[in-house]
C-alpha cells in the first residue's frame, strides 16, 4: 500500500483519564517495526473489560490510552522481520488482533495445558501511537478503538478472506471466552447439567459452548428475565432469577438438580457470584469455572467446599491458543455451526463510541447492583450443609 513505511494519521477514541468520556482525536500511528503488523481496523465491539479499565480499575498509570480489544481488520503493512521469518502476513490479509499472544516457541505455548505465553502482548513496552505530542498507551496490545493499530505478529490471527469482519470481530474476546470456558476449561461432558451465571455476551457464549459439548440441561441464571428467551436460542433449557427466591441461589440449584450441577460457569465478574457458582456444584466431582474478570476484591470460601471434591478453575480467552484456534472458530462460523450474528444488538460508528458506552453502563449498573443486593441478602441467611 502507498502508506507502507509512513506515519498514518487517523481517528481514534482516546481515553485521556479514568472515568471520563472518550475523545475522538486525530492520532499518529507509526509504521510497524520488526515483528509487528499495522492493521486497518474495519470493525470492533465494545466489551465490559474496556469499561472496567475506564470506569472501575481507576489506575492513572493506565492512561492516556486507546481502548478496544475485540476487533477485526485488514493488514496494511508488516515489519520486515515478519516477512523474512514467517512469510505468513501480507498486505490485504484479513486478521483478528489477539490480547493473548502465542509465540509457539516458549514452554507455555508448547504445552497443551495452557494458552498463556511468556511473551505478554497485554503489556507492550512501547506504543506506536502519539497524539498532540504525547505517547498513547496501547490497551492489552491491541487498541482497536482506532482506525489503525500496530500489533505484535504473535498476537494476530490470519483468517478466512471471505469472513465478514463485522461479525467475526466478536471472536477476538467475548465469544471465544465464554464458549471456550465451557468446552476447553470446564470440559463439559455429554449428558451433564450446567449452570451459567450471568447472561451477557460471555454468558450466552458459555451456554452455546455447553450445548455444543452435549450438556443435557443448561440452567441460565440472571436477574433480568428478558434474557431467557435469548438464552434459549443459544441452548439454555431452564432459567432462574435470583430475585424470585428468598434463599441462596446455590441452594435453589441444588434443590432443582437433587445434588447440584455438574458444571458451573461464572460470567459476571463478581466475587460473591463466583462463590455461589462453586457452591452450586455437586460435591465430589463438580467443576466451577471463573470467567468474569475483576481484581478489586478477594474471594472468600469455606475450605470444605473444595475438600469435599469440587474443583475451582479459572479461564482466560476460553483456554484458546489464539493464532491456532481463532481461524478455526472463524471456519466453524462460516460453516454455520457457530452463532455470531445473534450476539449483535447495535451497529454504531466510532464517533458514537460514548453512546455505546452509555448503553453498556446502563445495563451493567442495573445488573451489578442487583447482583450485589441479592448476594448480600443471601449471605444473611446462608446455610452451609457441607
Automatic annotation (TrEMBL):
Alcohol dehydrogenase-like C-terminal domain ranges (all copies): 201-331
An annotated Gene Ontology molecular function: zinc ion binding
Pfam families per UniProt: ADH_N, ADH_zinc_N
Keyword terms of this UniProt record: Metal-binding, Oxidoreductase, Zinc
Organism superkingdom: Eukaryota
Start and end residues of each Alcohol dehydrogenase-like N-terminal domain: 34-159
GO terms (BP aspect): formaldehyde catabolic process
UniProt keyword annotation of Metal-binding present: yes
Listed cofactors: Zn(2+)
GO CC entries: cytosol
PROSITE patterns reported for this sequence: ADH_ZINC
InterPro entries the UniProt entry points to: ADH-like_C (IPR013149), ADH-like_N (IPR013154), ADH_Zn_CS (IPR002328), GroES-like_sf (IPR011032), NAD(P)-bd_dom_sf (IPR036291)
Membership in a protein family: Belongs to the zinc-containing alcohol dehydrogenase family.
Protein name: Enoyl reductase (ER) domain-containing protein
